[in-house]
């Protein structure tokens, strides 16, 4: 049996930076905490409306606890699964991104179609040393292709590699 990561490396495909997993887990924890607070307000309102029925109040509390617990667990567990199923390859022809756990998707960006590129870095990405590569292409479908979870220096290098060379503009 061939290891999937070894097969990806043999094809020239690379994994995202390993720091992408703790970064995504931090984002998921923040989202879970915000949703827990918002749904707690709703649960308290529902409990206040049904204060005469202790069974309904208990049911609302259990549903809130279980729902938020499952959301938090999923947010922590899913990141490693998604990371294992996301690879990319950059060569002289362009860039290809493969991702997806259940529904697989392969996005191919020919270098000749690249209009311009950006590298963005939010506050949490900066804390983890990561960046998001954004490639803008000619056309309507996949006119904007993003690849997050890259080391910032790697994203900058890919950006430079994909940027059209001077004198090759057809206009």
| Secondary structural class | alpha+beta
Helical proportion?
40-55%
- The whole-angstrom Rg is 22 Å
Give the overall pLDDT as a whole number.
Answer: 86
Largest sheet: 4 strands, antiparallel
Order of helices and strands: HEHHEEEEHEEH
Strand content: 15-25%
Our measurement of the CA-to-CA distance between the termini, rounded to an integer number of angstroms, reads 50 Å
List the uncertain runs: 1-8
Q: What is the number of domains?
A: 2
Give the overall shape, derived from the CA principal axes: elongated
Give the total of beta strands. 7
Tally the helices: what do you get? Answer: 5
**Which strands sit side by side, in order, in the main sheet?**
1-2-3-4
Structural topology:
Elements: H1 4-10, E1 14-15, H2 20-49, H3 54-84, E2 87-91, E3 94-99, E4 105-110, E5 114-120, H4 123-128, E6 130-137, E7 144-151, H5 152-162
Antiparallel strand pairs: 1-2, 2-3, 3-4, 5-6, 6-7
Helix pairs in contact: 2-3
Key features of this structure:
171 residues; alpha+beta; four-stranded antiparallel beta sheet; three-stranded antiparallel beta sheet; 7 strands; 25% strand; elongated
């Amino acid at each position: 049996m061939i290891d999937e990561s070894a097969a990806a490396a043999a094809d020239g495909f690379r994994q995202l930076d390993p720091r992408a997993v703790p970064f995504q887990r931090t984002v998921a924890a923040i989202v879970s905490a915000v949703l827990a607070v918002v749904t707690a307000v709703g649960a308290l309102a529902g409990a206040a409306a049904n204060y005469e029925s202790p069974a309904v109040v208990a049911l609302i509390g259990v549903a809130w606890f279980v729902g938020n617990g499952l959301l938090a667990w999923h947010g922590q567990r899913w990141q490693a699964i998604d990371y294992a199923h996301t690879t990319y390859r950059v060569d002289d022809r362009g860039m290809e991104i493969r991702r997806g756990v259940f529904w697989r998707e392969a996005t191919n960006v020919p270098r000749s179609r690249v209009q311009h590129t950006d590298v963005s870095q939010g506050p949490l990405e900066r804390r983890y040393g990561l960046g998001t590569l954004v490639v803008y292409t000619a056309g309507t479908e996949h006119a904007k292709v993003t690849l997050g979870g890259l080391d910032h220096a790697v994203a900058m290098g890919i950006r430079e590699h994909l940027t059209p060379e001077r004198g090759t503009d057809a206009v």
